[in-house]
Design goal:
It is globular and about 45 Å long. The strands form 2 sheets. The protein has a 6-stranded antiparallel beta sheet with strand order 6-7-11-8-9-10, with helices on both faces. A 5-stranded antiparallel beta sheet has the order 1-2-3-4-5, covered by helices on one side. Strand 9 and strand 10 form a beta hairpin. It is about 25% helix and about 25% strand. Helix 1 packs across helix 2. It is built from 7 helices and 11 strands. By secondary structure, the protein is of the alpha+beta class.
């Protein structure tokens, strides 16, 4: 399947730059036993399939492994990208909601990061980016929230499908506190002006918000179509969100679509 190449942003130089270390190689982790080697792609995809099946029973029926991908007879596929950054616990998943759209198959990217166990990581992915995939295909509000451009938690000028905020860490109370703080901040609406000019796909754009970590080492990051967006990340950091008192992470995933594109995508997938 062809990969969609990102166009250079207007603010980026045409001069080549030296490679830099990623600012969030593995997402901050709580103390845990280190992973012994990288989980093979097919083992990870098997866990992702199990996690998706728990979210939506029957959704992965007939899905088969092919190469480093999980391919559904319904036309969607999930692939594991080659290791590019991070440690052995960091895996980038590329999601193709409809592989019949050729030659440039539209896709979105989000990562699976093993903090405790690989299955826990797959569950977090299935509850965020995976839920957005299911909702994009289903379109009935059963797996993620559909927001219009003028709605709370929406993106001005765009439609969106959002997982909401997931939080995890060492304290249930802190998980809830950070989750509520991000929801009350209406993050995407507040920072939308920093990244909407860089939404390039006529189908959908993946936006991942990540906030949290250990006290004194909190990270704020926004990724747009798989790449760290500096302006949006800075805007997230400037929102004044509370710092957790123990290791806590909150994250959300949103598909941002041109107004009217959501129903077209759903109809195309349903017809397939």
């Amino acid at each position: 399947m062809p990969w969609i190449r990102r166009r250079r942003r207007a603010t980026e130089s045409n001069e080549p730059t030296e490679p830099t270390e990623p600012t969030e190689p593995t997402e901050p982790t709580k103390p845990t036993k280190p992973t012994k080697g990288r989980l093979p792609d097919l083992e990870l995809l098997a866990l992702v399939r199990e996690a998706l099946e728990e979210v939506a029973p029957g959704s992965t029926a007939g899905a088969e492994f092919k190469g480093s991908s999980l391919l559904s007879p319904r036309g969607w596929a999930i692939g594991v990208a080659p290791m590019g950054h991070g440690d052995d616990g960091h895996h980038d998943l590329v999601v193709f909601p409809d592989v019949s759209i050729q030659p440039d198959v539209p896709c979105f990217v989000d990562c699976v990061v093993v903090v405790t166990t690989p299955r826990d990581a797959a569950d977090v992915w299935a509850g965020s980016a995976g839920a957005c995939l299911l909702e994009l295909l289903d379109g009935r509000g059963r797996f993620a929230e559909n927001r219009g451009p003028d709605e709370e938690h929406g993106v001005p000028g765009w439609r969106s499908i959002t997982s909401g905020v997931l939080a995890y860490g060492l304290s249930t109370q802190e998980n809830l506190r950070l989750q509520e703080a991000l929801l009350e901040a209406d993050v995407l609406r507040k920072i939308a002006h920093t990244f909407t000019a860089d939404l390039e796909s006529p189908w959908f754009n993946g936006v991942r918000v990540f906030y949290g970590g250990a006290p004194g080492a909190v990270q704020a990051e926004v990724r747009v179509n798989g790449e760290r967006h500096e302006a949006a990340s800075a805007a997230l950091a400037a929102l004044g969100l509370p710092e957790p008192t123990v290791f806590t992470v909150a994250r959300s995933f949103t598909l941002v679509l041109p107004v009217g594109a959501g129903q077209e995508q759903h109809d195309h997938a349903a017809a397939g």
